[in-house]
Amino acid sequence: MKIQYLIWVSAIATLLFTSCDPKSSESIEKSALSDSDPESEEVENRPSPLEVKDGTVAGKAFKVHYGSPAVKGRVLWGDLVPYNVVWRTGANEATYVELSEDMTVEGELLKAGKYSLFTIPKENTSWTIIFNSEWDLEHGHFQYDEDNDVLRVEVDPIWEENSQERLSIDLENPGLVIRWEKLKLPITIQ
Questions:
Q1: 6 is in which domain, residue-wise?
Q2: Which secondary structure element, helix H or strand E, spans residue 48, and what is its range?
Q3: What's the start-to-end Cα distance of the chain, in Å?
Q4: Which of the residue ranges 31-35, 65-69, 84-88, 97-101 would you say has the lowest mean pLDDT?
Q5: Are residues 25 and 63 in the same domain?
Q6: In the Cβ-directed half-sphere of 102, how many Cα atoms lie within 13 Å?
Q7: Radius of gyration of the chain measured on its C-alpha atoms
């Protein structure tokens, strides 16, 4: 019985050692390359592509980083994006902005820094725009905490005739303009 046990353990040990082939430098290089590629492939193959707009608003450096979802024939407002509920203003991780200097948003001071950008869409009134100090949220509004709000302002949406398939957030007059489907949401920033 003891001999049978020793043979069994020896056979398993031999199998384990012979099946564990150390990686050659070539396979390590390929592994290192493929480790970096999935992330870039994931970003490129996302259903809601990552967009980064880097420029100036009122002569000051400004950056916005967001996932750009498509309409895809869906009903957006009041359905996919419910009214009176915090929306991450994009897709995937939280949308965020980065200000190089203090600015005013709709006449209210917003200090230089990075902020997540949330919106509360409303059916027949002004929309609430929220700047939150927790800017690096992996799951957008699911991690949103109102206690971290730095600034809330009200903005009137404009409903246009033409529809835009992909969400865009552009640095243009009057500061930041959000467009998606028939929505145009201009946010005054100075």
A1: 2-44
A2: none
A3: 85
A4: 31-35
A5: no
A6: 4
A7: 25
